[in-house]
Amino acid sequence: MEIWEEISRQRVKYIVDSYLLAGDDDEYFDDYLEDLLQAYPPPQIELALVEILIEGWRNFPLQRGVPFLERSHNLLKSWENKTITPNISATQFRLITGLDPTLIFGISIDTHSTRSIFPSVSR
After folding, report:
1. How many Cβ atoms from other residues are within 10 Å of residue 38's Cβ?
2. Most buried of 33, 35, 97, 102 (most Cβ within 10 A)?
């Protein structure tokens, strides 16, 4: 496996681990996630996980485990053979995951901006 492939897989697993998305379905969840990683590009999986996560926040409690992956898989299937239009921005993706959105959105965002959001105070 190439280094970039391993990094892509680790990014997906980071999202899963950060939000405890496996729930109590560890073994089945891991097998299902591995199948998704074989079938879809990891950046698409990242986006699907985050979009389903956001959708889940609207419906408390958050569904985890295999049902969460099934919903993500259904979203991935709906994107097949058509242009993906994300429901979130690159900045939102970065804020939710802490990951660089460039692989998904194709743009880089400035995370080291020195511009203040507060107006300058005159002395």
Report:
1. 7
2. 33
Q: What is the pTM of this model?
A: 0.83
Q: Residue 12: in which H helix or E strand, if any?
A: helix 3-18
What are the extents of the domains in the chain?
A: 3-105
Cβ(48)–Cβ(76) below 8 Å:
yes
Place of tokens 């190439």: 2
| Averaged pLDDT for residues 41-54 | 96
Query: Which amino acid appears at position 22 of this protein?
Result: A
Provide the residue type at 112 as one letter: H
Dump pLDDT digits (tens) for 11-25: 999 999 999 999 998
Selection from 95, 84, 19, 93 nearest residue 56 by Cα: 19
Q: What is the pLDDT of residues 25-45, one digit of tens each?
A: 888 999 999 999 999 999 999
Q: How far is CA 41 from CA 17, 61, 102, 119, in A?
A: 19, 29, 14, 43
**Distance between alpha carbon 37 and the CA centroid of its chain, in Å?**
13
**Cβ pair 8, 42 in contact under 8 A:** yes
Query: How far is it, in rounded angstroms, from Cα 45 to Cα 41?
Result: 7
